[in-house]
């Protein structure tokens, strides 16, 4: 596969959107891999730092309401 931003061979895949990126065009970002309700009913998140990000897609900081699903 080639990098989404240039014609170099890709080295990784964006964690968020699936675009392939080369070493020159990748960026990194933190993300949650899972969230759950822990002891005493306290929400907890398991985060990972420095995951591959293409720098083009826009992971949203807030959940998006989808009331039409109910
Ligand atoms: Zn992306």
Q: Would you mind describing this structure in some detail?
A:
This protein is mainly β. The protein has one domain. The chain is built from no helices and 4 strands. The strands form 2 sheets. Strands 1-2 form a two-stranded antiparallel ribbon. The protein has a two-stranded antiparallel sheet with strand order 3-4. It is elongated, with a radius of gyration of 16 Å. The termini are far apart. The model has no long low-confidence stretch (mean pLDDT 94). Bound molecules: zinc ion (ZN).
Produce the secondary structure layout.
Layout: E1 12-13, E2 20-21, E3 27-37, E4 43-53
Antiparallel strand pairs: 1-2, 3-4
This protein binds zinc ion.
Zinc ion binds next to loops.
Brief digest:
The protein has 70 residues and is mostly beta strands. It has no helices and four strands.
């Amino acid at each position: 596969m080639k990098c989404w931003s240039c014609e170099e061979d890709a080295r990784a895949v964006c964690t968020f959107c699936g675009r392939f990126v080369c070493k020159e065009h990748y960026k990194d970002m933190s993300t949650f891999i899972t969230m759950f309700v822990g002891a005493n009913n306290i929400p907890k998140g398991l985060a990972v730092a420095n995951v591959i990000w293409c720098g083009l897609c826009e992971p949203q900081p807030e959940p998006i309401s989808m009331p039409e699903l109910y």
